[in-house]
Please model this.
Amino acid sequence: MEHKNKIILITGASSGIGRAAALAFANEGGTIIVSDVNENGGEETVEMIKSNGGNADFIKTNVAVFEEVENLTRNIQETYGRLDIALNNAGIGGQIARTVDASVESWEQVMAVNASGVFFCMKCQIPIMLKQGGGVIVNTASIAGLRGLPNSIAYSASKHAVVGMTKTAAMEYAKSNIRINALCPVFTVSPMFDPEALDGMVKGISEKLKAGIPMKRFGRIEEQVGAMMYLCSDKASYVTGHAMPVDGGLTA
Ligand SMILES: NC(=O)c1ccc[n+]([C@@H]2O[C@H](COP(=O)([O-])OP(=O)(O)OC[C@H]3O[C@@H](n4cnc5c(N)ncnc54)[C@H](O)[C@@H]3O)[C@@H](O)[C@H]2O)c1
Model:
């Protein structure tokens, strides 16, 4: 069991990639702190882990609010005394509109959750990891953090910010035995990316998006989780500051 007795925080773990990661890391023996704004989904993830014989707790947190992130990490410190792995995965897609039509409100909301949220998390997590002598962080960015994504100016800006923060913090704390990487998924079927719902808005769009991916298919949640598990494992012990595309070749 790769993560036996490790304390693992996953934000955005009430659904999608975060929930699947929570189940997978729990299967490897980790104690999972499931964190999300969605309380019902979070409790459900905890129940799924427990009914599989694993350990988990839910701590409701809005990552866009610094005091809530401070409380989350203080709570983890007091309850468990350490934090081995943090998956800063919470995120929102925001409005789909061209730059001129994008609302200031959606810009601020997306930047607050996706960019400030990751900054707040790392700001609070790294001191615990420094104190205990090391740790691993994986921030969920996107291929939209490596290239433009038309009709998603805020999302793309926020995910470029995640990649930049990941690289910067990785360089700062590399000598302190803290590895920090970013996962960059392509379109991956999840509650956030539902091809059918998208086609309902713009007819035929999902086939067009798929056609642009060299593998000619969307990503699967378990493929994203597999990359997260690699980045958190000892197999990646010399990997830090990397923004890893898991994208069927899109950014090749
Ligand atoms: N699915 C994709 O195609 C795709 C592609 C690239 C990147 N991503 C990224 O992967 C991550 C997970 O997305 P997903 O596809 O599993 O979507 P999802 O909507 O299923 O999961 C996102 C989770 O984040 C939570 N969340 C939203 N705002 C929050 C906040 N302020 N504080 C705490 N939690 C909050 C949601 O409640 C939800 O549980 C996101 O960061 C997303 O941007 C997804």
About this structure: The mean pLDDT is 97.
